Amino acid sequence: MPNFSSSRALRMRAASPSLPLVSLPTFTSRDCKTARGRKRTKNKTYPATATKTRIDMSEIVPPEVRPKPAVPAKPSHVVPPSSVPFVPSPQGTGGEGQGSGRGSALLGYIGIDTIIEQMRKKTMKTGFDFNIMVVGQSGLGKSTLVNTLFKSQVSRRSTGWSRDEKIPKTVEIKSVSHVIEEGGVKMKLTVVDTPGFGDQINNENCWEPISKYINEQYEKFLKEEVNIARKKRIPDTRVHCCLYFISPTGHSLRQLDVEFMKHLSRVVNIIPVIAKSDTLTLDEKIEFKQRVRKELEACGIECYPQKEFDEDMEDKSDNDKIREAMPFAVVGSDKEYQVNGKRVLGRKTPWGVVEVENSNHCEFSLLRDFMIRSHLQDLKEVTHNIHYETYRAKRLNDNGGLHPISSSGQDTQESNL
Fold first, then answer.
1. Number of other CB atoms surrounding residue 412 within 10 Å
2. pLDDT digits (tens, 9 = 90+) for 255-297
3. DSSP state, 404?
4. What is the pLDDT of residues 299-309, one digit of tens each?
5. Which of 105, 108, 114, 112 lies closest to 70, judged by CA?
6. Looking at the DSSP assignment, which residues form a beta bridge with residue 174?
7. What are the distances in angstroms from CA 383 to CA 15, 106, 129, 235, 327?
8. Cα–Cα distances in angstroms (integers) from residue 101 to residues 89, 94, 108, in the given order
9. How far is CA 386 from CA 33, 224, 325, 380, in A?
10. Residue 175's beta-bridge partner residues?
């Protein structure tokens, strides 16, 4: 490496010959690097090192960029229950391990609300059963009212009854089943009739065959439940609703009416109706309804819907209105007449047409809406959860428990029962 300090001294000597020759210190490249390092130290930087790490930019791997998970869009066929966003409310104040019931904010649509649609599709495929019993004296229009309720010929008399049929000497139980469909929903409707009830001179204990039939259906369902290899869907023949027809006397209930409802209200849902209410004036109808309600309350008879089964204040408010309207004063008819340019179901009289579905003429529309459009499922649930469970608990306690029924020992088990 050239000696820069000697060259500099020679140039200065040549420029000024009078100056003496002075020997200057010698600087090397290492000294220059050291000087630069000290300068950086003054500027609060680290001294330069003799070795440097060489970085190959081609070896640097950029971090993996993961795509943001896509939030599935809400199906177009699902209608939101409300426009208010979901705000979870914590259900506990404990520490860790106690937050199992605590809600969490949803980051996107999940689809929990589609369970209702799933249940609807399944019900439409399988259908459901509804069994209704009609009880009352002959000539009160029981078959006509059932046909009017379901707007089809579903009663026993509409299918196989002849006018030559005589009134039986004892109470008989006859049922007829139909499959009716509306809006893609199938329902197996069974109408149970009780010819001969209240038509005898001596009507003592005439409700016993009816009570026996109802309990037999509970027993049949119970046997299917205790089977080892039971059916996936147990046939339901239990009576879900009993329409009791009261004669429109305008005075009070008969002793037969009181005794029947007192015994049967414990095992089945009873809905009392005043048959052929068009034979009463408006004042007579109001007074008769009030008198019937007082007698039922005095005898301790609870008709459906029972007060003790009201689940919340909303149910209580709706059911109170129904209890105040009982017994329903109804008129049945399966014939149509022209009234004000439209066809209506009604009964024609010399002074006009009594319109069945006109709430100013009778309370048929209230009965239909209550029994079919708002409380049909509740009738089935009360039958299963209350009446059937009461029978089941009593049956198992009395018998010490039912043994499972096999296909070979079914006859033996039935004989023991």
1. 12
2. 999 999 999 999 999 999 999 999 999 999 999 999 999 999 9
3. P
4. 999 999 998 88
5. 108
6. 193
7. 128, 39, 13, 15, 21
8. 10, 11, 20
9. 99, 18, 24, 10
10. 192
